[in-house]
Amino acid sequence: MLDFYAISEHNGWSIAIVGITIVFSGLVALSIVVSQLHKILMAWENRRIWLKRFKAFLLGKGSIQPGLEDAPFEVLEDAKNLSMLAPYLPEPFTPENLFEIAEKRGVEIRQHSIHYLTDCGYLKLDNQGNYFWIKE
Known about the structure:
By secondary structure, the chain is mostly helical. It has 7 helices and 2 strands. The mean pLDDT is about 80.
């Protein structure tokens, strides 16, 4: 029984087709992984930036502004809160005005976030202690 009839009798054709399909699928999957490996490695190297962007997205901010990629999470949260308070702030505004309006609106703003945003160039401090928004 070494002919094609024996192969058909013991489901040899279906076993061969399933085996070829499994091997071919594995090779296709391997080729896809190898072709996208550079993107996976790039994402792994920049995982902190991707994580911060993901956190900013979860906070409701579409993307991180340039200069804030390495900002702590609290600063990103305060920047979002400041953008919500911006229409209610006078121009220029004092830290007292900011904290008073933030308290009325139930928003917490940290002092170190104000300094961080000033250092990044989003806020400008004048000689009287007032802050200005830098328009971009």
